[in-house]
Design goal:
MetI-like fold; 14 helices; about 75% helix; about 0% strand
Length: about 325
């Protein structure tokens, strides 16, 4: 079996990556179809919502004329195929509310979300990685129990509740940070970053602890200890190397989750990113913007899962050998 093994760096690896990518394409199309169908069945549209928000009476003929101009009077499948064909050509449509090009509006908000995501991931790594390692090394001791208790609290509190606590304590009581973001500067990013990082750190601290603890309990660690190898060498040269694949995968998935799931936090802190843009679009039934956000999330999750799969295939010989055995 080992003689027939081909590493992922060669042609076999390229074929595997292409095959996995092709398997994910139908998922993307399925997501776009389901999201478009759900919006179609919502029972309202951007034209009706727009005139309702203005608080004025508008003749039905004007509403129908506006719907026809936007193509909202067409059958569902025709609307979907028109949108899909334009999207495949790089045209994500025009906002029903603002009349702005969707892709232009989306790309203008994207840097703010990338900044928030990058800072949240960095803080999460700085908290969860050392604390998870410390909890595993001090297994069932006071430090471990305290860290596990803190992780339980962090997991139990939803993001919006953490946001309100931080706004009350740091923004209102101490007055050291703005309650509402005044832009996309570092000062305004601190509270939304902490809100996201607290919940993620609580979750990934336990994952890091579990991965490191699993490696510490394996026979090769016990053998190294019996040979007199120092605990630091075992931890950093053996255990962390073996556990790093799991940690890298968790980190990759957290990045995908953040890039697609910061909508609530961005809305609470008025952070001007794609998440807040999506929430505003949902309130206004601005379907092209909603579809752009759905595609954004779908592409992120597909790409991140593909990357994690390829990392496993590259770093874990058990998966490569299993694949060559087929």
């Amino acid at each position: 079996m080992i003689k027939n093994h081909k590493p992922i760096g060669g042609q076999a690896g390229m074929n595997y990556a292409i095959r996995r990518f092709l398997q994910l394409i139908p998922i993307l199309f399925g997501i776009t179809f389901l999201s478009f169908l759900l919006m179609y069945l919502a029972g309202s549209d951007a034209v009706t919502e727009m005139y309702s928000n203005r608080g004025v009476e508008v003749a039905q003929e004007i509403i129908d004329e506006r719907k026809a101009a936007l193509g909202l009077n067409l059958p569902f499948f025709q609307q979907y195929l028109n949108w899909l064909g334009a999207m495949l050509q790089g045209n994500m449509g025009i906002s029903y509310v603002t009349g702005e090009d969707v892709l232009t509006a989306f790309m203008r908000k994207l840097p703010a979300t990338l900044l928030l995501t990058g800072s949240a991931v960095a803080v999460t790594v700085l908290i969860s990685l050392p604390c998870g390692i410390l909890a595993a090394v001090r297994h069932d001791r006071l430090v471990d129990l305290l860290l596990r208790f803190g992780s339980f609290l962090g997991n139990a509190m939803p993001n919006f509740f953490v946001a309100m606590l931080l706004m009350e304590f740091l923004g209102i009581q101490l007055g050291i940070l703005p309650v509402i973001a005044s832009g996309t500067d570092i000062e305004s990013a601190i509270m939304p970053t902490l809100t996201l990082a607290i919940a993620m750190s609580a979750k990934y601290l336990r994952q890091v602890r579990s991965a490191v603890l699993e490696e510490l309990n394996k026979e090769y660690v016990q053998g190294a200890r019996a040979r007199g190898v120092s605990a630091n060498v075992i931890l950093w040269k053996n255990v962390m190397k073996a556990a790093m694949l799991t940690i890298m995968t968790l980190l990759a998935l957290s990045i995908g989750s953040l890039l697609g799931g910061t909508a609530i936090i961005e809305s609470i802190f008025m952070w001007d990113g794609v998440g807040k843009l999506a929430v505003d679009a949902i309130n206004m039934r601005d379907y092209p913007l909603i579809q752009a956000y759905v595609m954004w999330m779908a592409i992120i999750y597909v790409f991140v899962n593909l990357t994690a799969d390829l990392l496993y295939h590259y770093f874990d010989p058990r998966i490569r050998l299993g694949g060559s055995a087929k």
